[in-house]
Amino acid sequence: VMDDAALDNLVDALTIASKFTFDTETAPIDPEDRRIDPMRSKLVGLSFSTGPGKAWYVPLGHAEDNQLEAQKVLGRLEPLLTDASRTRGAHNANYDMTVLAKHGTHVRNLAFDTMLAAHVTGKKAIALKALALDYFSHEMTPITDLIGTGRKQVTMAQVTIDRAAEYVAGNADLTYQLYEILDKEVDQKGVKHDLDTVEM
Fold this sequence. Notes:
Oligomer: single chain
Helix content: 40-55%
Order of helices and strands: HEEEHEHEHHHHH
Low-confidence stretches: none
Structural class: alpha/beta
Distance between the termini: 35 Å
Mean pLDDT: 93
Largest sheet: 5 strands, mixed
Strand order of the largest sheet: 3-2-1-4-5
């Protein structure tokens, strides 16, 4: 359960971490709109990881009531996301950063994007699910297991916090693990300059 004490613990953990990864979970503003567009989405939650198996989910926009108010949470987390001296990573960071910027939090000096790193190291499939299977033989839960399909499909905001937490915190955790592996692979393959100066 994310309450004030849990938020304090998260802030402390991110503050002392040498690096962390983050991910946003969103839902379309218009439930009938099926497009994946950060400008047409609302923030449902944030996840963070500070190491393998260490992840948090902060619910912000679920239909359930037991969550903290989004602006309060972003106010506490903003210094950690905007401080240019901190080392942060994400997967498909452009989406997450656009969502956060829309909510007034501008991530500065992102250190690493695992999707872009996979691209410059020559991976053909660069989605998080494909990379998790490739590197860890880990079969991620399909999003359709949570939100359904077709006319019965719901948004992530309608998924229970417990079910969403396991899924979204898992994304941040896997991103952290990929960050550690791909960071070394980028160096080994001599493509760090391309990643840092072109892709990032």
